[in-house]
Write a structure and sequence with these properties.
Number of helices: 9
Radius of gyration: 35 Å
Distance between the termini: 113 Å
Helix content: 40-55%
Shape: globular
Strand content: 5-15%
Largest sheet: 6 strands, antiparallel
C-alpha cells in the first residue's frame, strides 16, 4: 500500500519505531538514560541485598528468642544448678547431683527435673499465685469464724455431734477454695512419695528418667539432705501434674507410678494441691505447723484411682 512504511525503515521484528526515531532522545540523552538505568539497577540490587540481610538478622533474632522462650517454657530450671539442664542427660544430672551428697546448704531444699515435652506457657505466674493467696487467706479467715461459731453454738453437745457439724460445713469451704484456685488457674498439684536410703535413690532415678521422657507429669522434685536428719528419715519426692481437677491425667500419672512399682496397695501415695501448700494447709505437726482450718490436707489417695474391685464407690480423701 502507498501509505505503508518502507520495511527497511522499521526496527527488525519489533514494531513500528524506526532506527532513526528520536523517541528516546538523541545519543547523549540515550547514554544518560542508560547510565541512570544502570545506576538505579545497581542501587536497587544493593538495597535488596541489605533488606534480605536485615530480614535474615531479624529472623535469626526471632528464632533465638523463640528458642529461648521454648527452653524457658519447657524447662523452668534452665540455668538453675539444682535442676536438670536440657543439655545434660538424666544420667549426667543424677551423677552431678547425687542425693547422698546433695546438701541442702549448697543446693537448696530441692533438686528438680522438668518434663521437656510439656509447654508451660500460659500457666499461672507468681503474680497470679499472689492474687489467689490473698483471696484464699480472706476465705480461710471467714471459715475460721464460721467454724468457731459452729462449735460455740453446739457447746455442751457430744464431741461427735460437734465434729460431724464442722465436717459437713468444712467440706463446703474446701470446695470453695478449690473453685477459687481453679478460677485463678492455680491448679498444679503433686503425688507425694516418701522414701529413705537406697529406696529413695532408686525411686528418684526412675522418676527422673520417666519425667524426662514425658511419661509422667509435668515435672518432679526431691528434698535434699540437711545433715541433721538420721538415716531413718524419709525424704519426699513430688511428682507434679498440671491440673488437680483433671482426674484423668492425675490418675494416669499414679497408674504409671504403680506400673513402675512405686505405688499400689502396699505403697499408698497421696496427692496434694499446690493451692493447699501455698495456703499453709498441712497435716498436724507436719513441718511443725498446726492445721487450724481442719481441712483435709490431701485431695486424692492412690487407692481412689487404683482400686479396681468395683464393689464400692471410689472416694476421694475425706469423703464420707
Amino acid at each position: 500500500m502507498a501509505n505503508m512504511l518502507d520495511q527497511q525503515n522499521l526496527v527488525d521484528g519489533h514494531g513500528y519505531i524506526s532506527n532513526e526515531s528520536s523517541f528516546y532522545g538523541d545519543g547523549e540523552e540515550k547514554a544518560n538514560l542508560e547510565a541512570r538505568s544502570e545506576f538505579h539497577f545497581e542501587r536497587w540490587g544493593i538495597h535488596l541485598q541489605n533488606q534480605m540481610q536485615a530480614y535474615a538478622t531479624a529472623a535469626d533474632a526471632s528464632n533465638a528468642l523463640a528458642a529461648a522462650a521454648t527452653i524457658s517454657h519447657n524447662n523452668p530450671h534452665e540455668g538453675n544448678s539444682s535442676g536438670r539442664q536440657l543439655s545434660e542427660s538424666v544420667a549426667d544430672f543424677l551423677q552431678r547431683l547425687p542425693l547422698s551428697t546433695s546438701h541442702r546448704g549448697e543446693h537448696g531444699p530441692w533438686l528438680y527435673i522438668a518434663n521437656p515435652t510439656f509447654n508451660r506457657q500460659g500457666m499461672a505466674n507468681d503474680s497470679v499465685w499472689d492474687s489467689f493467696a490473698t483471696q484464699g487467706r480472706e476465705l480461710l479467715a471467714k471459715w475460721l469464724i464460721k467454724k468457731d461459731a459452729i462449735k460455740e453454738g453446739l457447746k455442751g453437745r457430744p464431741a461427735s455431734v460437734i465434729k460431724s457439724a464442722v465436717t459437713r460445713e468444712r467440706k463446703l469451704w474446701e470446695e470453695e477454695l478449690r473453685r477459687l484456685a481453679i478460677g485463678w488457674g492455680c491448679t498444679t498439684g503433686k503425688w507425694l512419695l516418701f522414701r529413705r536410703g537406697r529406696a529413695l535413690d532408686e525411686a528418684w532415678a526412675a522418676i527422673a528418667e520417666a519425667t524426662a521422657q514425658g511419661r509422667l507429669g509435668i515435672g518432679a522434685k526431691v528434698a535434699t539432705w540437711d545433715g541433721s536428719e538420721g538415716e531413718d528419715h524419709d525424704q519426699v519426692i513430688c511428682v507434679y501434674t498440671a491440673n488437680f481437677a483433671d482426674e484423668a491425667d492425675v490418675g494416669r500419672v499414679v497408674k504409671r507410678l504403680s506400673e513402675m512399682g512405686l505405688a499400689g496397695k502396699t505403697k499408698q501415695v497421696r496427692y496434694k494441691t499446690d493451692a493447699w501448700t501455698i495456703m499453709g494447709i498441712y497435716r498436724e505437726q507436719e513441718f511443725e505447723l498446726f492445721n487450724e482450718y481442719e481441712f483435709q490436707t490431701t485431695l486424692y489417695s492412690s487407692q481412689y484411682f487404683l482400686d479396681q474391685s468395683g464393689d464400692k464407690k471410689r472416694k476421694r480423701v475425706g469423703d464420707d
